[in-house]
Amino acid sequence: MSKPMVRILLLVVLAVAIALGVAYRQHLDVAALEAWVAGAGTAAPALFIGLYALATVLFLPGSVLTLAGGALFGPVWGTLYNLTGATLGAVLAFVIARYLTSNWVQARFEAGAGGRVQRLVKGVEAEGWRFVAFTRLVPLFPFNLLNYVLGLTHIPLLHFTLASFVFMLPGALAYSYLGFVGREAVAGGEGLIRNGLIALALLAVVAFLPRLVARLREKPMLTVEELRARADSKTGLILDVRTATDFVGEQGHIADALNLPLEELKARLTDVGDDPERPIAIVCRTDRRSAKAAALLARRGFADARVVCGGMTAWLDQGWPVENRSDTRAEGANV
C-alpha cells in the first residue's frame, strides 16, 4: 500500500475515533475511572498517564482528568502525572498532524493557496516556542485542537514539547490541587479551609496569567531615533494609521510612509503585504492609535509590528523633515 493511501487510512481511523470520543464524552464516568485506576496498584500512574494522553488525542475533556489526577494522587504526584499525560498527548497529536497532513498543507501554501491562513502560520513559526508558551499559559485556546494545528507548522518538535511541559505547569498545579481539595472535602480531612484557600490562590494566579503574558508579549516601542535610522536605511515599512486628512494635514507625514487609517486597517491588510516577518514601524499623532493597530497586526500574524513612541509629535519635536503637500500620494513602499 502506498504512503498516501496509508495516510488517508490513518486519517479516516483517527477521524472516526475522535467522532466517537466527542459523541460519548458526556458519558465519561469520573468515579468509575478513579476506581479503575486506583485498582491498578503500582501500575496506576502509568495507566493514568496513558489514559490522559489518549484522551488528549481524542478530544476528551482534560479538565475532568486533571481534577481526577489530583484526587487520586495528591497535589504533587497528581500534578506530575497530569502534566506528563497532557504533554504526551499533545506531542502525539502534534506528530500525527505533521505526519498525516503537513506535506499537503505546505504544498497548498507553495501553490499560492492559504492567504490569511498562510500568513498566520508564518507568524506562528516566527515566534516559535514563545507562541506555544503563550497558548499554554493563556487557557483561551482549545487545547486539544491547538495540538493538531501546531503540527501543521514548522515549529521544532523539541521546542513544542519543552514549552508545553514547562508552561502548562501552573494550570496543572492549580487544577490538581483543586481535585485534591475536592477529595479532602468529601472525606472530611483536616485543614480543609487552608487547602481550599491555597486552591483559590492558585486559581487566581492562573486567571491573572493571560493579562501578564499579554504584557510580556508586547513588542517594545521604537524610539523616533530608531525610526529615523530605519527611514534612512530604507528598512521595512513605515505605517501611518492616522486619517487621510491628518496624513496630509498640519503634521504632515514621513516620506514613503503608507497611510492606512486605523478604521480601515482590518479591511485593507493586503496593502501591508504578506510577509509576516517584515519590520513594520507604526506611527500616529502620539502612539494610542498605533498601539491598537499593532495589536490587530499581531493577531493577524505579523510578528514584527512595533509602535513608534510619541509618533509624529516626537518626530516633529526633533525638527526632522516631513511631507505635507495635499497632492502627496498616500502610497506605501519599503523604507
Descriptive key words:
single chain, 4% strand, mainly alpha, 4-stranded parallel sheet, Oxidized Rhodanese, domain 1, 4 strands, 335 residues
Query: What order do the strands of the largest sheet run in, or round the barrel if closed?
Result: 2-1-3-4
- What is the count of distinct domains? 2
Characterize the biggest β-sheet: 4 strands, parallel
The parts where pLDDT drops under 50 for at least 5 residues are: 326-335
Radius of gyration: 25 Å
Bulk shape? elongated
Kindly report the average pLDDT value: 81
Strand fraction: under 5%
Proportion of residues in helical segments = 55-70%
User: Between the first and last Cα atoms, what is the distance in angstroms?
Assistant: 54 Å
Please identify the structural class as seen in this structure.
Answer: mainly alpha
Order of helices and strands: HHHHHHHHHHHHEHEHEHEH
Question: Helical element count?
Answer: 16
DSSP summary, beta strand count:
4
